[in-house]
Every structure is written in C-alpha cells, then in structure tokens.
Amino acid sequence: IAGITQAPTSQILAAGRRMTLRCTQDMRHNAMYWYRQDLGLGLRLIHYSNTAGTTGKGEVPDGYSVSRANTDDFPLTLASAVPSQTSVYFCASSADSGHSPLHFGNGTRLTVT
Amino acid sequence: GQNIDQPTEMTATEGAIVQINCTYQTSGFNGLFWYQQHAGEAPTFLSYNVLDGLEEKGRFSSFLSRSKGYSYLLLKELQMKDSASYLCAEVDSNYQLIWGAGTKLIIKP
To answer: CB contact, 8 Å: A48 with chain B?
Structure first.
C-alpha cells in the first residue's frame, strides 16, 4: 500500500539523549517535511526538503537536524533532547512544494522526561 | 509573520450545516488548503483553492475570496464521523504552508 511510514509510533526519551525519528515514503514524492504539533498551536514546520539532496530550515529548526540522501527517506534527529521537544511529530510528503496536497504519516508521539 | 485565524471550537447538530471560517493575510498568497484531522490521527487533505469562488466536493465545499483574505469550509448533512479538527493552511510567497491552529468541530445527535 503506497504511503508514508513513520517509526516509532511513540517514544519516551530521557533528556540529553539522542533520537532519530524515521520517515519513509513510497510515492516518489519530491518534497518532504517534518512538523511538530502541540495543543493549541498550528502545525509548525521544523525542516523540509524540496528534492533529494537538499534540505531547508522551517519555523522551529533549533535542536533538530535532517538529511535527504534519497527520495524515499527523511529522518529527523534530535541531537540532545530537551523537555520542550515533547510533542507529536508528523512527517509529510508532496509531489512538489507549494500546490500539491500533503500526505501525512501517522505521527510519532515523543515524550522527553 | 503571517497569521491564520479560525475559531477554536464549534458545535453543530447531526444532519445540519456548519460553516468554518478562516482568515489570512493577503500579501504573498499562493493558495489555501483545508485538512481534516480526527483525534489521535494524521491530517488528511480535503480541498485546495487558489481562485475565487466555491469548490464543491460531495458534502464538503470550500470557498475563497482573495480580496478579503477569507475562506470557509462548508459541511452539509453532518454526520457523527465529521467530528474532528479542521485545519486551514495558506501557501505563502515562498510556497510554504502557514497553518491555523485548527477548529475543533463537535457534532451532537
């Protein structure tokens, strides 16, 4: 089934630990995105990639890094987790940036203690 | 920065019609999306408007007025399964999405 897969589904992480959230899509979409969603706030863009080999910073990039080595994979790394990074993280993809609808993964619920 | 405003919560009755409004800043506008998000799930695409007017898609319609910086999502013949949050998102001048905080729609029998 074509789509976008995130792992893990949920995670409890001690502050200061390193963590990589995985995201894979099989739709051959050019653009991929990482968002965080917090209660009462809209989705906030962390990092994005318009095409394989390129990445860009979104609205809230501090404390996060990404890579886009190929079309399918777009991992998000927290180098040293802090409690304020407790959130639900959504990976998304679209055929191209701008006018194409986003397809979202099921999300990763991360708790940093 | 750009602001997207939509009501925090709305309540409607099963079988009725509800209109969810969204206002945005007009500078650098490149389109507007509506997404549906059930509790604990990912957002799913509902509609996209870039020109003025009404786009109808079954029970759901979306309207855009670019001069007023205004859009609405119209849901007809409401069903209990329509209970969800509805997210408005503007495509800005850099072709990035600016998201509203979402409108939680509660459907009562």
So the answer is: yes
Nearest CA in chain A to B3: A42
Tell me the pLDDT of chain A averaged across its residues: 95
pLDDT attached to residue B1: 43
At A31, the amino acid letter reads A
Residues A103, B43: C-beta atoms closer than 8 Å: no
**What's the token pair of residue A2?**
């074509």
Amino acid residing at A105: G
Q: Which of B60, B71, B80 is nearest to B14 (CA)?
A: B80
Question: Nearest C-alpha of chain B: how many angstroms from A17?
Answer: 26
pLDDT for the residue numbered A110: 98
pLDDT digit string (tens) for B52-83? Answer: 999 999 999 999 999 999 999 999 999 999 99
Six-digit token string for A14: 């001690």
Question: Which residue from B42, B95, B98 is facing A90, i.e. has the nearest CB?
Answer: B42
Helix (H) or strand (E) holding B3: none
What is the distance of C-alpha B85 from the center of its chain? 9
Q: What value, to the nearest 5°, has the Cα angle with vertex B54 and ends A29 and A96?
A: 10
**Residues of chain A found within 8 Å of residue B4, distances taken between Cβ atoms:** 42
